[in-house]
Specification:
heterodimer; A: alpha/beta; seven-stranded mixed beta sheet; five-stranded mixed beta sheet; 13 helices; 18% strand; globular; B: alpha/beta; five-stranded parallel beta sheet
């Protein structure tokens, strides 16, 4: 087992721990050298996996009970007093129950509060729609000052948490429930807020993904290469805001076909953010979004739901094949317009 | 130490001047929440001219006491006080509500020096105050946090979330006030959504509760000093007040929750303020009476 730079845990751990557990460990590491860091939760210390932090720094954990509006208001007040609060609760509560506190107390005042939103998308499948959150990316990216990150896996979560400390202002980090597969092999791949990670080079089509969809997009790219001979570029656009316009436009230019995959309503999320960039550029391409088709989620195990909403490997393969049949306006001079 | 008779007279005179300033700002702004500004004016005066440890020349002084105006619509009142304290030039208030002015009816803490939290949406200030008090304790700071709520604001559920937390965390450096003027936009609080027994509710939530005449400086001072020495629990000071206090034609009138005044009305208002000798609630219409 190899020690990883900047962490006191190891590769083996990162491949077996959930995103949220990794969040807890990284926060422990950061707190050792940053006395401003405190952790807040609303009766979800266990579910949001800050137990490690609580064991090590019991005086730095504040559990406010089942009261999410108060949770974010208190975090705002703590940030005002000079602390660096990390607030963890389920994404449904962080983005909807306490939205006004997040918007008015934290974002409007541009405070240094970092939000760890667990159980994003349909990752808490069996719990049903009340505990799913397929709206949060749309909601959070519409808040001025907010930075929105949806890490692909535990390694990227570790990178995102570290980067969030360095970035002034509010940051929303959306995690799954913790049973998602790991894509990266370590944290040393050049993570930077606002910079897409090229998972796979390709020339025929680009699949843009965030969160758990990154792993599935990479799997789909392999299958499409082996079975169809298609060259699929896969971009991990972990930062929804500020979005990497350069990587998106390079993909449009190079591949002319874009499929966006996310564990979210197809309205307002990563797909919409990508579409904004493309529309504003004046360039055209064949474009499709894969996610929840503006509906409330079904109940079921996450893997079944990912299949149902075409977020898994097979679903993405199908969507790519569809999109490859679509026409787009050819323009030989198109390249010159940049 | 209790306020002396001389100090009380001085605070009363200051409050008369501040009330006149609030009337002026209301004219310049084209309308403001003047009724609730006037009802809380004596608590604000006692805090800013006697009890709060602040340095107007250094608004971000880390060791200052914090003040959160949870009833953020009282911004017209707080801005008059902050200007008078020297946080900014009083002339800037001529621009109140104007295009791109730093001053709007709900003050923006990132634009107005001396405003410790941006408020306006009700039910937010007490939670932020709890966070500030926790932050002070965590960083071993001795500064205190003061929060002023409206009575109608206590309809908001988040207020009671914060109330539970302040008790749970034993935040004895947190002192809150309720400007109990018995009115909200649509009418009397007890007719719209009754709050009584309000003090009992706060006691039941574990707070040290003091009930005072919110226009009587001896009582305001004694309550604040009592809060400063209370250990193990936050203090709530329920201030019985009169909406529109000091302006005869505004007092206890629901319609003056928010209003516009022209220069003629402003002159009448100021004459009424200057003519008022005492500043206690006594003599005002009975609380909860028919409107």
């Amino acid at each position: 087992m190899t020690a990883v730079t900047g962490t006191t845990w190891n590769v083996y751990d990162a491949n077996t721990l959930t995103q949220a557990e990794i969040y807890g460990r990284v926060l422990c590491d950061l707190a050792a050298t940053d006395a401003r860091i405190v952790a807040l939760t609303a009766d979800l210390a266990r579910s949001t996996k800050i137990g490690v932090f609580q064991d090590k720094y019991p005086q730095r954990v504040f559990n406010v009970g089942i009261a999410e509006q108060n949770l974010f208001g208190i975090a705002a007040g703590m940030a005002k007093s000079g602390l660096l609060p990390f607030v963890s609760t389920m994404s449904a509560f962080a983005s909807m129950r306490a939205l006004e506190q997040v918007r008015t107390d934290i974002c409007y005042q541009n405070l240094d509060v970092k939000i760890i939103a667990t159980h994003g998308g349909v990752s808490f499948g069996q719990a049903g729609t009340t505990h799913h959150c397929t709206e949060d990316i749309a909601i959070q990216r519409s808040l001025a000052n907010m930075c929105v990150i949806v890490p692909a896996d535990g390694w990227e979560t570790a990178n995102a948490v570290r980067a969030a400390v360095q970035r002034p202002g509010p940051v929303y980090i959306r995690l799954g429930r913790g049973f998602e597969p790991t894509h990266f092999e370590n944290d040393d791949y050049g993570f930077e807020i606002g910079k897409a990670v090229t998972i796979n080079e390709g020339t025929d089509i680009t699949v843009i993904a965030c969160g758990v969809a990154v792993y599935h997009a990479a799997e789909a790219a392999k299958l499409l290469r082996d079975q169809d001979g298609i060259s699929v570029r896969v971009l991990d656009v972990h930062t929804i805001k500020p979005i990497d316009e350069v990587a998106i436009m390079a993909a449009v230019t190079d591949t002319r076909r874009i499929l966006v995959v996310e564990e979210h309503n197809v309205i307002g999320g990563l797909g919409s953010a990508v579409a904004d960039v493309i529309a504003a550029s004046g360039k055209g391409c064949a474009f499709a979004k894969s996610g929840l088709p503006d509906c409330y989620s079904e109940v079921g195990y996450p893997e079944d739901l990912y299949g149902h909403y075409c977020i898994d490997g097979d679903g993405i393969v199908g969507k790519v094949r569809e999109l490859l049949k679509r026409e787009f306006e050819a323009d030989e001079d198109w390249q010159d317009e940049f | 130490m209790p306020l002396s008779a001389k100090e009380i007279r001085s605070l009363q005179a200051k409050a008369r001047q501040l009330r006149c300033d609030m009337v002026d700002v209301t004219v310049w702004a084209g309308g403001a929440h003047i009724g609730g500004a006037l009802s809380m004016a004596d608590v604000l005066t006692a805090l800013y001219y006697h009890y709060l440890k602040v340095k107007p020349a250094q608004p971000d002084w880390p060791e200052r006491d914090r003040f959160v105006l949870s009833k953020g619509h009282g911004g017209v009142g707080l801005s008059a006080v902050l200007a008078d304290k020297g946080y900014f030039d009083k002339d800037l208030l001529h621009e109140f509500n104007h295009f791109k002015s730093p001053f709007g009816m709900h003050l923006d803490g990132n634009k107005v020096p001396g405003v410790d939290a941006s408020t306006g949406s009700l039910g937010h200030g007490l939670s932020m105050s709890v966070g500030m008090a926790l932050g002070a304790r965590f960083q071993k700071q001795t500064w205190r946090t003061y929060c002023l709520l409206g009575d109608g604001e206590c309809n908001e559920g988040s207020v009671w979330e914060a109330a539970m937390a302040a008790h749970q965390f034993k935040l004895d450096t947190l002192t809150a006030f309720i400007d109990r003027n018995h009115m909200m936009i649509d009418g009397r609080t007890e007719d719209i959504m009754s709050l009584e027994p309000l003090a009992e509710k706060w006691r039941a939530f574990g707070w040290e509760v003091r009930e005072i005449d919110g226009h009587d400086y001896a009582q305001i001072g004694a309550a604040i000093e009592g809060a400063q020495t209370t250990k193990g629990a936050p203090t709530m000071i329920v201030c019985d007040t009169v909406k529109g206090k000091g302006v005869d034609f505004m007092e206890d009138q629901v319609k003056w929750h928010y209003g516009s005044i022209d220069s003629e009305l402003a002159a009448r208002a100021k004459a009424s303020i200057q003519a008022a000798s005492g500043a206690t609630r006594a003599g005002a219409p009975a609380a909860g009476g028919a409107s």
